Amino acid sequence: MYMVYSNQTGVSTRKLVISSVKKAKYLKDRRRRAVLLRMECAFDAQNLISISLRKIQSSRTQRGGIKLHKNLLVTYVLRNARQFYMSKNLSPTPRTQQYEDVAAARETQEYLELTGSFTELANDFYCNFGGMDSDTWHCGAPQQHSSCQSAEVAHQDASACAMVPPSDSDLMVSESFWTCADKPAWESHAPSSQVNHKTVLDLDTHVVTTVTNGYFHSDCCAQPKQSLGAQWYAKKRRIDTSYHIVEPEFYLSDFGPVPCKRLRTDEDSHSDSETLDSTNISNLISVLGSGGLSEFVSWQHTDLEQIFASQTISLKHTLLTGSGWTRAIEAF
Amino acid sequence: MRLAQFLNATCVGHFESVMRGEAGTREFLKVECKVFTPVPSNTRSNLHSSTSHRQSEAAGSATTVLTVQGLIPLQRPPCPFPWTTIMAGVGDEIDEVQWCFSQVKGAIDDDVADADIISTVEFNHSGELLATGDKGGRVVIFQQEPESKNQPQCRGDYNVYSTFQSHEPEFDYLKSLEIEEKINKIRWLPQKNAAHFLLSTNDKTIKLWKISERDKRPEGYNLKEDDGRYRDPNTVTTLRVPIFRPMDLMVEASPRRVYANAHTYHINSISVNSDCETYLSSDDLRINLWHLEITDRSFNIVDIKPANMEELTEVITASAFHPNQCNTFVYSSSKGAIRLCDMRMSALCDNHAKFFEEPEDPNNRSFFSEITSSISDVNFSHSGRYMMTRDYLSIKIWDLNMETRPVETYQVHEYLRSKLCSLYENDCIFDKFECCWNGNDSVVMTGSYNNFFRMFDRGYRRDVTLEASRENSKPQSVLKPRKVSSGGKRKKDEISVDSLDFNKKILHTAWHPLDNVIAVATTNNLYIFQDKLN
Which residues are the signal sequence here (chain B) (predicted)? Predict the structure, then answer.
């Protein structure tokens, strides 16, 4: 890997972790100091991940809409921090016994905090639900978007529709999903009936895409009812009651290499989703992890494109009306 | 003598008389001459020359008067710095430009209303007008008073000329999103008649404003009174012809065109073409070409949106038209690359004609490398040969003929490299600093934190850090250069990195196109500085 972080090679100049730096000052053993530095970097990585997630979360409620550029940069930081953490985990550094407990305790605490924020974030972003546990998930609380309000309603509808024993799942769930989702305003917020499915409607190109366990594959054009049978495949959804408390190791172990987006066939996705499911990880996090962190960015942004079907040609409008929505009405 | 040599090397044949000083003496004569560039070639006014010179006579017996007159040539000399300050002297002491406080505009309170935060600053092509836009959607235009006859050396002050609400907050019902009214950019159109035109844009809509003066009004209507009330036609017994009478000067701003609904993402730049008929607007993923007269359609000339949004790796951060070539424009990306496109090649300029990128230094790799390499501003030089890009920590000057690396790189605040983590936490790392050239492309300027701004002299390889604060706000008081100490030892008068105020940032600066006058915007105040004239 090409990652060479400046902190690893020299004296840490970060002021973030103050207490451990002060401790280091009293150390005479350079080896111990080096170990602490590496743990600081790991600590920073975790810290960075949680900070980044919080930033993404708060950007949803910011005035003026989601800033694509800033979110993209935040996902890069997330990716870098994640990669660093993975590389550190894969090549464990020798820890002296003396400091291991301290570091481990700190790390565990950070994990819990991290997963807490992760779960909130997942809640917010994915409006996820599931059969029996639909009440544990909800479509993220503080939303200004009325679209998400309606999504929440639809979410409940869909969950009602999907209230079948998991073993029965096949196409029926997806059909109900589409029925509930048949509203243009929040089409891209449509909750997925299967937690590892996510629907994205790009109104720029009128292509419906589904994301399965983080793997992206595009469906046909937006003729929802017709294309359903062929494209959607249901999965037996094992309700994992523990998924809202994510084991940190699972969280980390799911992180693959740098997000590589691939177009996969249905069969591949199907089998992959089964294997991933079996690792008992929260499906949201798996979507978030393996599919690339830019995923949720894109998910948010497809709904930005509702209106501008052909962006260069627009209607005549008077000077006085802010005609942002006249075109929208025209489009529908 | 050095002066003669210098002149011969740079501006051959353009100076009328030079008198030689006495060589060999200890006392020396310092002469500083400035020759300004002509107004841009696309205006109709004649080329004019403007020289100012100051001379200081050495103490002592041998004094020599040096007279220099300059005439702006019709063709620019081939050397890169044709118009720089010309120094002469037997000694080697070179006078630096001294910057003085001139004016400050804006409220004094520390409690800054969100709507008063200045978001853009722009001089017009003559430098007579200075426009600022703020977060509340307002545009304020300042006009420079003509030089008074009493003090010919003093430049006029900038006073408020016009204020208007350019953009209002909008609400997009379908997305349930508010569209901010913050003015992202203002660009002046070259002046063609008595009125002034500017383009102002927020995140989604661009507007063309006409600013005109009215100093007469018609009086003597038959059917209505002077105050506007309508008369009863039955009471009209005589007929008269309305005539124009002078009135107090009124400056009116009226929106002439509204260019809307062309951008899905947030508009970050607009740039007027040198043909004065078209302009481009860019958002995160697309660039559109507009005709100034036509509001209901625009051409999409760049589209970097991937078919699959998951594959998005970079966005457009800034774009600009070439100042002389109407077919060339550049756009910068969040990955630190600049693409130059030629509109003659194809209708959709997704394929660049030139690609400027400097390979990343692997030693500086960190978690935040992608953020610090993202370009926040790109600007062509007035000559059109160079362009300047600003990323978070540095300024790079590129020669358009060399794509592999910049010709010059200036570190603006390298001491922040070790602070990137904290800056990420408090969101300062996402600040988008702008940069600007001076009129003759010899000095570049940009802002920093703690209300510091920096100038880099390309010719003399000098840089200076100055501060915009109310403490140095006595008229004509010279600004003292500041220094930030990055190491452990802090010298007197230096500021340590930890005591910098990261809430006081200078993101927007502008340089008068023809003179050494600069406008520097702090959070809610606009400072105007000028160089010291004797």
Answer: none
Answer whether A72 sits within 8 Å of B314, measured CB to CB. yes
Taking alpha carbons only, the member of B274, B325, B269, B275 closest to residue B302 is: B269
Return the structure tokens found at B37: 């560039």
Residue, of A93 and B134, whose pLDDT is higher: B134
Residues B303-348 pLDDT 10s: 999 999 888 999 999 999 999 999 999 999 999 999 999 999 998 9
Are B430 and B466 a contacting pair, CB within 8 Å? no
Contacts of B369 in chain A (CB under 8 A): 80
- In this complex, do A261 and B334 lie within 8 Å of one another by their Cβ atoms? no
Give the E-state strand segments of A120-196 in sequence order: none
Q: Helices in B380-432 by DSSP H: which ranges?
A: 420-425
Q: Which of B135, B174, B300, B313 to mutate to test the interface with A (most CBs of A within 10 A)?
A: B174
Using CB atoms, pick whichever of B285, B296, B334 lies closest to residue A314. Answer: B296
Name, in order, each residue with C-beta under 8 angstroms of A276's C-beta and a sequence gap of 6 or more. A196, A213, A254, A283, A286, A290
- Return d(Cα B339, Cα B333) in angstroms, integer: 8
Return the axis-axis angle of helices A266-278 and A283-290, rounded to nearest 10°: 120
User: Closest partner residue to B311 among A261, A327, A328, by Cβ?
Assistant: A261
Look at residues A144, A119, A127, A145 and name the one whose alpha carbon lies nearest to residue A50: A119
**Residue A270 host element (H or E):** helix A266-278
pLDDT confidence of B468, banded at 50, 70, 90?
A: very high
Q: How far is CA B468 from CA B26, B112, B438, B500, B527, in A?
A: 38, 16, 18, 14, 7
Helix A30-59 × helix A18-26 angle, to 10°: 170
Per DSSP, the three-state class of B407 is: coil
| Complex ipTM | 0.80
Beta-sheet strands, E only, within A115-229 = 197-202, 207-212, 215-221
Please report, rounded to a whole number, the percentage of residues in chain B having pLDDT higher than 70. 81
Contact B521, B121 (CB under 8 A): yes
Task: Report the DSSP beta bridge partners of residue B141.
Answer: B131, B162
Place of tokens 């009328």: B16
d(CA A214, CA A268): 12
Q: Which of A202, A306, A324 is nearest residue B261 as measured by Cβ atoms?
A: A324
A144 interaction partners in chain B (CB closer than 8 Å): 176
Give the pTM: 0.63
Q: Is the dihedral of CA B326, B327, B331, B336 positive or negative?
A: negative
How many other β-carbons are positioned within 10 Å of the β-carbon of residue B526? 23
**What letter does residue A229 receive in the DSSP assignment?**
H
Terminal Cα distance for chain B, rounded? 25
**Is the distance from CB of B415 to CB of A8 less than 8 angstroms?**
no
Tell me if B309 and A315 make a contact (CB, 8 A cut-off): no
In the block, residue with structure tokens 């627009």: A314
Of A2-16, A45-59, A233-247, B186-200, the least confident: A233-247
Q: Which residue of A has its CA nearest to B334?
A: A69
Return the bridge partners of B245, or none: B217
Question: Cα torsion at B437, B443, B446, B448 (round to 10°)?
Answer: 180
CA A296 to chain CA mean position, Å: 5
Lateral strand order in the sheet of B269-272: B269-272, B278-282, B286-291, B299-303
Contact in structure between B256 and B211 (CB atoms under 8 Å): no
Contacts of A40 in chain B (CB under 8 A): none
What token pair was written down for B454? 């920096």
| CA dihedral for B25, B30, B31, B32, sign (positive or negative) | positive
Cα separations in angstroms, A79 against A257, B368, B372, B427: 9, 10, 15, 18
User: Strands B494-496, B483-485: parallel, antiparallel or unpaired by DSSP?
Assistant: parallel
- Find chain A residues with C-beta within 8 A of B371's C-beta: 73, 76-77
The Cα A35–Cα A97 span in angstroms is 11
